[in-house]
Structures are given as structure tokens and as C-alpha cells.
Write a structure and sequence with these properties.
The protein is an alpha+beta fold. It has eleven helices and eight strands. Strands 3-2-1-4-5-6 form a six-stranded antiparallel sheet, covered by helices on one side. The chain starts with a strand and ends in a 9-residue tail after the last helix.
């Protein structure tokens, strides 16, 4: 499914579709009002269920979204390659720093007049020698700048992302999601798609959605036209997955329902007060995370709960059987 996020969000259906061509007016100068654009035949408007995801996407790029069903083992092997490559680059840069720092320190010392192998006597040196020295040192500085700014940007973006990727990189992607059987892949158009939002014109999205392309794992889809948007991938997974219920919340809900069925709602609230009181005590045997761990405190709390239930004509054992035992009590 392809999604084009202009000021008016659009989504594409089908596999290998054709060319994405926003309609133009009959005059020589096409309309620049996005609201007047017509969707191509192979595209349909995005449904309301996709709006939470589409609202997270920037409006100045074309985005293509699909599901990656390739085996997890293949995904691991593919991801291992850039990991090793970036580690090798980092190691190489560290070696360069080890040898370059003393050189630059000596050159800076020479500038301030201290004794240094790089100190030059400008009174004795010839013009040709001075020009050669300046050229050599300038070239060294330029090479190191190119090495760290260009080559060094690869591991930096791999680990920390960039402004274009909203500071989410491949490492954060895999650390947060791991390797799954089914993954959401979101590709972002590179600079070629910018004119689409100034003046309507054709944009080739069909070739990027062919079955041969989509059969590859996500990391192999990086090319001159599309980059992976790791922030969008993380957002898509976050919105697609149902919220996980905390184990403690499940305990509380089971206990509450068991008491409500027995018309003992007030006992539930009283029990919560008991747990809060016991867990707020700052003495040995009390866990500050909200769980009663001291034996004496547990016995005292259970005795009070038993008294409260018996006053309602309810046996404590019946409630414990209903929720799965004493360990399923909130606070235990």
C-alpha cells in the first residue's frame, strides 16, 4: 500500500500500480491547489483508521508502506552487514584519531611559537618550501575533515539517525522491535519528490511497489529514490499493536469483579486502602514498589480482609478460589 502525504493524505492500493499522476487543469499552467488534485485510478483515499498514523508523517515527502514477511533469519543476516561495516568504520576512525591528534597538537604548538617538529623558520625557508608546507598541511586537514564529516556520518546516522529521519536510526529500530515475522516497512521519497508539492507532475511510484521489490526484506529497499523512515516504522508498530495490560492491573480487575459479584464493592476500596497503608510503611519487610512482602504485614492484611468479608456473610476462601489464590490478591 502506498501513501502519498501531501497536504491532502493519499493512499495507494494494489501491487505494481502504474504512475502516480496528479491531474492538471486544461490550461498550460496546472493548478497548484492540492484540494483540486484528482487521485489516479490505482489510488484510493486513506481510511479513517489510518489517520492516527498518517498524522505522524511529514507533509513534504511521498511515503510507501507495506508489510515485510521475509524470514527473521534473513533479516538478521542482512542487518549484520551494516553493523559490521559501521563497526569497521568506527575502528578505522579511532585509529586515525590515535595518530592524528599528536600531529595536530604539534602543529598548533608550532603556531604559538613552541618547539615542534612542524615549526618552520619563515626567514630561512624558500617561498617554494613555504607553499609546499602550507599545501601539505591544508591537504591533511581537508582529508581528515572529509574522512570524519562524510565517512563518519554513516555510523552516526546508523546509531542515532539524522534530522531527515527525525533522529531514529536502524539501531533504535532493531533495539525497539527486534526481528519479527511480519514488520511494517515505511519508505520515504528522497529529494526527487519535492516538486510534487509545488507543482503537480508525474511521480514514479509504481516500480517501487512491484512484487519483485516487495519480496525483498526492508533493509534491502534502500536506493537512490527511497530511504527507510525509521521513525515512521516505529510509530506504525506502536499504533498497530494493542496496548498491553499490566499484570498488576489484571490482578486488581479480577479482584474487583469477584467482590462486585458478591455485592462487596466497598470491601474492594477498603482493601486498596489497606494495601496502600502497608506499602507506605518505611520499615524492614516492606517493598516500596507497592507489594506487601513482610509475613506479619500479610497476615494482618488478610485478617482484616477476612473480617470485612465475614461481616458481609462472605467466606474469604471463596473469593481466593475465584481469583486463583492468595498470591493473586492486589498487593501480594
Amino acid at each position: 500500500m502506498a501513501k502519498k502525504t501531501a497536504p491532502k493524505q493519499k493512499t495507494g492500493g494494489g501491487g505494481g500500480g502504474g504512475t502516480n499522476k496528479p491531474s492538471s487543469s486544461s490550461t498550460a499552467q496546472p493548478s497548484t491547489d492540492p484540494s483540486s488534485w484528482a487521485l489516479p485510478d490505482s489510488f484510493t483515499p486513506a481510511g479513517a483508521s489510518l489517520q492516527p498514523f498518517l498524522s505522524t508523517l511529514p507533509h513534504d515527502h511521498v511515503f510507501l508502506t507495506h508489510l515485510d514477511h521475509t524470514p527473521t533469519e534473513l533479516k538478521r543476516r542482512v542487518f549484520l552487514v551494516p553493523c559490521l561495516l559501521n563497526l569497521a568504520i568506527i575502528a578505522g576512525l579511532c585509529v586515525r584519531i590515535y595518530y592524528a591528534v599528536p600531529t595536530y597538537i604539534q602543529q598548533i604548538s608550532a603556531i604559538f611559537g613552541y618547539e615542534s617538529p612542524y615549526k618552520v623558520d619563515v626567514q630561512q625557508a624558500s617561498t617554494t618550501s613555504l607553499i609546499g608546507t602550507v599545501a601539505d598541511r591544508t591537504l591533511l586537514l581537508f582529508i581528515d575533515y572529509a574522512l570524519f564529516s562524510l565517512l563518519g556520518s554513516w555510523p552516526r546516522e546508523f546509531y542515532f539517525g539524522s534530522a531527515a529521519s527525525r533522529f531514529a536510526g536502524p539501531v533504535e529500530w532493531r533495539q525497539e522491535l527486534g526481528f519479527r515475522d511480519t514488520e511494517v516497512i515505511v519508505r520515504r521519497g528522497r529529494k526527487w519528490d519535492a516538486p510534487l508539492f509545488v507543482q503537480p507532475q508525474s511521480g514514479e511510484t509504481g516500480p517501487a511497489m512491484t512484487p519483485s521489490k516487495l519480496s525483498k526484506t526492508g533493509y534491502l529497499l534502500l536506493d537512490k529514490d527511497y530511504d527507510l523512515d525509521f521513525r515512521a516504522i516505529l510509530d506504525a508498530h506502536r499504533l498497530a499493536e494493542p496496548p498491553q495490560e499490566e499484570a498488576g492491573d489484571a490482578k486488581v480487575e479480577r479482584f474487583r469483579r469477584a467482590l462486585v459479584r458478591r455485592k462487596c464493592r466497598d470491601v474492594f476500596y477498603r482493601w486498596i486502602e489497606i494495601v496502600q497503608f502497608e506499602t507506605n510503611q518505611r520499615r524492614q519487610g516492606i517493598d516500596e514498589s507497592g507489594v506487601i512482602v513482610g509475613e506479619q504485614q500479610q497476615h494482618r492484611a488478610l485478617a482484616e480482609l477476612k473480617t470485612l468479608l465475614e461481616a458481609k456473610g462472605i467466606a474469604l476462601d471463596s473469593v481466593l478460589d475465584d481469583i486463583g489464590g492468595v498470591q493473586e490478591l492486589p498487593g501480594f
